[in-house]
Amino acid sequence: MSLRLITGISALRAELGERRRRGESIGFVPTMGALHAGHGRLIEEARKQDGCVVVSIFVNPIQFNQAADYERYPRGLEEDAAFCRARAVDVVFAPGVAEMYPGSRCTFVEVERVSEELCGRFRPGHFRGVATVVAKLFNVVQPDRAYFGEKDAQQLAVIRRMARDLDFPVEVVEVPTVREPDGLAMSSRNRHLTPEQRREATALYRSLQLVQNRIAESVLDTRQLRHEALELLSKTPALRVEYFEIVDPELMQPVDTITGPVRVAAAVWAGSTRLIDNVVCRV
Ligand code: AMP
């Protein structure tokens, strides 16, 4: 079946209602477009598990805390639709801002604690915007399963918690991070990097790997681990570290001594481009 490109909520509901009646399960991949192999991996997972794969493409204004970042976020619906068509996506839902947010807004979803640290500390309102749009999209799409990348681990934790606390009948599926051959996590923002910044950006993943290796060697004091990681990052002065934290994987709160699984997560700036990455470590 060919790809259906839908921009309206009621048209999407009609299409998905029909497919549900035919007995197809709905797999949902929410994105902001500028699709790359990371998104491709999410689509692939959905394609394996669900009868109908829906990809949403919506650059959500309420999750950007800087207008300039929203303005320069890459957009290209035609290319994205071709990307989806090549991966046998059934439906692309690409609503305009007026469709998703007609008039003024009074209702938001706030996921406390999980949203507090890491990106939440530096991007006030970001996760409220994410949780709100994903809640709206869950209500519109009513997926059986929704696929999210481990690349945005805090976002994944926020969505998991929201789905659990608000009883969304959806299985949240975590998909591993897709990386460039040199380790840099794929991101729509990577295209903003100059060739030099692109080379330097690899230090981010190397700093995470360093901590991963040290934890495997039983260094469990997070102050020591952060110190070593920041030392490595300081050798690439062009990268400005926003945060480097070791947190528990559910509430995303910093831990002092590692006694169970942790997420090691960092954000750095390369010029005006913000990069995030994380790895999970088990002791
Ligand atoms: P975005 O379009 O950046 O909002 O991302 C949409 C979805 O794709 C989110 O669930 C992301 O975590 C996921 N994603 C983005 N980059 C990657 C990657 N490199 N590997 C795996 N998933 C990713």
Task: Offer a quick outline of the entry.
With 283 residues, the protein is α/β, with parallel strands linked by helices.
Shape: globular
Count of individual helical segments: 11
**Biggest sheet character:** 6 strands, parallel
The ordered H/E elements are EHEHEHHEHHHEHEHHHEEE
Low-confidence regions: none
**Coarse structural class:** alpha/beta
Q: CA-to-CA gap between the ends? A: 46 Å
Oligomer: single chain
Helix share, percent: 25-40%
Beta-strand fraction estimate: 15-25%
| Average pLDDT for all residues | 97
Rounded to the nearest angstrom, the radius of gyration is 19 Å
Please give a handful of descriptors for the protein shown.
283 residues; alpha/beta; 9 strands; 40% helix; binds adenosine monophosphate
Task: List the topology elements.
Layout: E1 4-6, H1 9-21, E2 26-31, H2 37-49, E3 52-57, H3 67-72, H4 77-86, E4 91-93, H5 97-100, H6 119-122, H7 126-141, E5 145-149, H8 153-165, E6 171-175, H9 195-200, H10 202-216, H11 222-234, E7 239-247, E8 262-270, E9 273-281
Parallel strand pairs: 1-4, 2-3, 2-5, 3-4, 5-6
Antiparallel strand pairs: 7-8, 8-9
The structure holds adenosine monophosphate.
Residues 31-32, 38-39, 41-42, 148-149, 151-152, 175, 177-178, 185-188 line the site of adenosine monophosphate (AMP).
